[in-house]
Amino acid sequence: MSRNETPAPAPDPVRDRLAGRIRAMIDAGVDGDPAPFDALALDLFAWQYEKNAAYRQFCDAKRLDPGVVSHYREIPAFPTDAFKTAVVTSFPIEEAVMAQLTSGTTAIRRGQIFRDALGRELVLAANRTMTAAWLFPDFAQGQRCRILILAPSPEMAPSMGMAIGMEETRRAFGTPDSRFLLDYSGLDIKALVAALEESEASGVPVAMIGSTSAFVFFFNACKARGMRFRLPAGSRIGDGGGYRGRFGELTQDDYFRLAEEVLGIPASHCVNVLGMAETATNYFDDTLRAALQGRGTTRRRIPPPWARVEAVGLDDLAPLPPGEVGLLRHYDVVNLPTVLAVQTDNLGYTGADGSFQIVGRAKVVDGKVQPLPSERVVGPMGDKRIFRFLEAYVNFSIRFKMGLARARQPSPANDARPMTPPVCPCDQLTEEVLANPVPRPEASAAERSPG
User: What's the average model confidence in pLDDT over 285-300?
Assistant: First the structure.
């Protein structure tokens, strides 16, 4: 075996049977039977309790083990902050092939979420299924479209879950001319504008995916320059980062209004995606699928059959009734290589139909969680220093390059202005992005970006 090869996993018939049951639920799709979840969750908990030392220690401290737990809601939920101080895997760490930075922002340091080859296979399969159901619900099997990605590629940010997920979306649903539009010089505004104009002229819809903040900056820059597009019906936006109150200076309704004004894309075709490294499954707004099915303009996040989301009390962490705001807790059997129950610091509420909404991150005052969300702004690319720089760089490049872009009906003076790459005056910012210092602890020697 070469030095860089990942060792073959030791045989584990129990794990293989669990994985088969998980695959069956994923293969059945978002409309599949949810009934197998309860028994599968308990069986998975028993296996993770045995195999995952950090999680077993956590469960033992709570005096909860497979012998006393009889319902998935009783399974101890591992807090997201604990991922920052421990390697939380149900497999030998030397078998890791995938690592993502944790999404939490309340601690000083961030950890990594590791997955082995089986875990990587399952998480990508689950999210292909979710993407097909919620972002491309009108696509026939194998149908593709041009995808324009306003986010870094996995080569730029190998530990960013958003980058990994968008590359998988490009591979699974994109035509050959789909591409990432962000490189080390910032967002390629010239290529983006050309692609939008080509879509207008050809009548072929496009899908635009990326961080919510990148869309906000692009919309505002277009509006300031008088640039508007009328993209063909069926064009859509998938933005990631989660609606946690406001998008900078925008409300959610402002964002939808700008998407229609600038691109001609209605709110029904603006699909937000919420993902966390600690949980395997990404959650999508159901608005596009609902519109296609004639169910109006609802905007819910509906867990698939293989997952559940609950709101729990701020003080006692007891399950709350639908509509009551609490801390969101995720149960996801696709988290086979880590822990299936995760306690987040996100505030939100559930609906009677099992859907949920997030309202913000919890604010802690004097060690006590507050019922109102924190006002601290956290970008969709995360709170790690390199990712804050990267997001700032994306938004800076949009402002700078759009300042050089020609309006669509320019004056003679503007028409003469060339669209040239920017010369970024922010030397420190450029160096941070180019260096891309993704943390690689000794435990992650086997880490590889998917590809």
Answer: 89
- What is the rounded distance in angstroms from the CA atom of residue 289 to the CA atom of residue 135? 8
Q: Tokens 């804050």 appear where?
A: 388
CA 94 to chain centre: 26
Between the alpha carbon of residue 12 and those of residues 98, 164, 258, 447, the distances in Å are 20, 28, 52, 22
Could you tell me which residues come within 8 angstroms of residue 265 by beta carbon, excluding any fewer than 6 positions away? Answer: 231, 235, 236, 237, 259
Whole-Å CA distances, 316 to 78, 198, 313, 327, 368? 15, 56, 6, 11, 12
| pLDDT tens-digit map of 407-427 | 554 333 333 333 333 333 333
